[in-house]
From TrEMBL:
Gene3D superfamilies (UniProt xref): 3.40.50.20, ATP-grasp fold, A domain (3.30.1490.20), ATP-grasp fold, B domain (3.30.470.20)
Taxonomic lineage from the root: Bacteria, Pseudomonadati, Pseudomonadota, Betaproteobacteria, Nitrosomonadales
InterPro entries: ATP-grasp, ATP-grasp_carboxylate-amine, ATP_grasp_subdomain_1, PreATP-grasp_dom_sf, PurK, PurK_C, PurT/PurK_preATP-grasp, Rudment_hybrid_motif
EC number: 6.3.4.18
Organism: Nitrosomonas communis
Name of protein: N5-carboxyaminoimidazole ribonucleotide synthase
Any one biological process term the GO annotation gives: 'de novo' IMP biosynthetic process
Pfam families in UniProt: ATP-grasp, PurK_C, RS_preATP-grasp-like
Reactions mediated catalytically: 5-amino-1-(5-phospho-beta-D-ribosyl)imidazole + hydrogencarbonate + ATP = 5-carboxyamino-1-(5-phospho-D-ribosyl)imidazole + ADP + phosphate + 2 H(+)
Keyword flag Glycoprotein: no
GO CC annotation terms, alphabetical: cytosol
Top-level EC class as recorded in UniProt: ligase
Length: 376
């Protein structure tokens, strides 16, 4: 099948910061973008050529996307899979509806991974109150009860120490379908962004080491400070997941490195990922440009790293006494600032990020830490 040529209109489901960075990458290659997002003034909707401010199921918005866009992609993993299925009948869609329907549901995702032989934390489905009584196996405690759908940034999760805490936790999570999983002893967390094209070409971005604060990604360190053996295993597992899912597009695999050195998959995100933002400044091709290339059936770009890099998220908490002084970031000539154009800063809300590039990971980390401290 032929490529989608620059100048064409591309559709984007979701208007958040991931979509904004996709839109910028697509526009810089000459494409135009139509965003479908129910919110006014969204980060992507405000820079795209066109913003359809409507629900994802809105019939006239979907008609417009399907008749004016040569290809449609997503930036938001909770786009209803039936919307993607509808669009697949009219234009190129990446990622595929089937992959998204698995990745957007923790239970289906864990069942898929386990069935295909990937290591995941021992888990149990908690769909209703009756399932609570089956969760008495010591294997799951201490554990974490997670809602199956719509959880993000550590939201929709409760840590559980003993079986009798489970019922309260399930009530707290409003008895939504959940997954109970064993709390694993982590040495560190890493992620791999993988792209798989319609021609089966696969590219892998360098492995990122991720540090979280209160369940939200705080910092990504690249290259990850882990052994070559674990890097190789993570790359192999990421490749295999993309193939087994018959994925077409950009996918993130989050891993747990256990204290005994074993590698488990935590979760998969069917889209570019916060832990891949470093690729904008530090790789020949960013995760967002790769997303545009795959969607448009163009050859993929090199994922090679220019230099070691550290990415730090900027959360709304920093805005407590007004706009932060960005000179504190920009006075380091090796730092790059990215802000997402969000109008309201709320605690925990991702407002932007910065990256620091340096000759060594240690130097990048030290400079990033110094900037973080100065911003506080
Ligand atoms: P989210 O969708 O919010 O990113 P995750 O399932 O990735 O949810 O969990 C958020 C963070 O909580 C993880 O990055 C990790 O730090 C911690 N966590 C989640 N599950 C486990 C587990 N089974 N064992 C240890 N830590 C965990
Ligand atoms: Mg996660």
């Amino acid at each position: 099948m032929s490529s989608i040529i620059p100048g064409a209109m591309l559709g984007l489901l979701g208007g958040g910061q991931l979509g904004r960075m996709f839109t910028m990458a697509a526009q810089s290659m000459g494409y135009r973008v139509t965003v479908l997002d129910p919110a006014e003034g969204s980060p992507a909707g405000s820079i795209a050529e066109r913003h359809l401010c409507a629900d994802y199921h809105d019939a006239s918005a979907l008609h417009e996307l399907s008749t004016t866009c040569a290809g449609v992609t997503t930036e938001f993993e909770n786009v209803p899979a039936d919307v993607l299925r509808f669009l697949e009948q009219h234009c190129v869609v990446s990622p595929p509806a089937r992959s998204v329907s698995i990745a957007q549901n923790r239970l289906l995702e864990k069942q898929f991974l386990a069935a295909n032989g990937f290591s995941v934390a021992p888990f149990l489905a908690i769909q209703n109150k009756d399932d609570l009584s089956t969760a008495i196996d010591a294997l799951f405690f201490p554990g974490i009860l997670k809602v199956s759908q719509f959880g993000y940034d550590g939201k929709g999760q409760v840590r559980i120490h003993t079986p009798h805490e489970l019922s309260d936790a399930f009530t707290y999570l409003q008895q939504q379908p959940c997954v109970l999983e064993q709390l694993l002893p982590l040495a560190c967390e890493i992620s791999v962004i993988v792209a798989r094209g319609f021609d089966d070409e696969i590219s892998l971005f360098p492995v990122a080491e991720n540090q979280h604060m209160h369940g939200i990604l705080d910092m990504s360190i690249v290259p990850a400070r882990i052994s070559a053996g674990i890097v190789q295993q993570a790359r192999k597992m990421a490749t295999d997941v993309a193939i087994q899912l018959d994925y077409r597009g950009v996918l993130c695999i989050e891993f747990f490195v256990l204290t005994d050195g074993r590698l488990f998959i935590n979760e998969i995100a069917p889209r570019p990922h916060n832990s891949g933002h470093y690729t904008l400044d530090a790789c020949i091709t960013s995760q967002f440009e790769q997303q545009a290339r795959v969607l448009c059936r163009l050859p993929q770009g090199s994922t090679a790293l220019h230099t070691p890099v550290v990415m730090v998220n900027l959360l709304g908490d920093l805005w407590q006494s007004g706009e932060p002084d960005w000179n504190k970031v920009l006075s380091n000539p090796n730092a790059k600032l990215h802000l997402y154009g969000k109008h309201e800063a709320r605690p925990g809300r991702k407002m932007g990020h910065f990256t620091v590039l340096a000759d060594t990971v240690e130097q990048a980390l030290q400079q990033a830490e110094a900037i973080k401290v100065s911003l506080k």
